[in-house]
Amino acid sequence: RMCEVSGGSIELTPRVTGQQHRSADDEMTIKCAYNRNCRFLDNDNYHDWRRGMHRDRVREWLEKCQDFLQMRYYFDSGLGIFDTLDGNIAAQMLATGASG
Is 30 exposed, middle or buried (0-12, 13-18, 19+ CB in 10 A)? Predict the structure, then answer.
């Protein structure tokens, strides 16, 4: 509900079987983010998808935008905390003149 109230969505990956569909959740995450041109939350590195995505435009988008749009996360079960790993983006990669 919190995602929907803020304008986001939670999508469920259908259960599919077969060797070619073992990473259907990864493919769906990538394609949903591509279609919405939005950030996505996942700890996968998508190494195989950056080389093997059949749709060229989606693969090129992932190669170009993954570092900026993918959000990684962690759970601290001892404290009951969920948080994102924001990482380090080099200053020269950020837009100039942006106010924060």
Answer: buried
pTM of the model as a whole: 0.71
Specify the DSSP element, H or E, that contains 40. Answer: strand 40-41
- Rounded CA-CA distance 64/33 in Å is 13
- Cα angle 13, 84, 1; round to 5: 50
SS3 content of the chain, % helix, strand, coil (to 5): 45, 15, 45
- The amino acid present at 62, given as its one-letter code, is L
pLDDT tens for 21-74 read 567 888 999 999 999 988 898 999 999 899 889 999 999 999 999 988 999 999
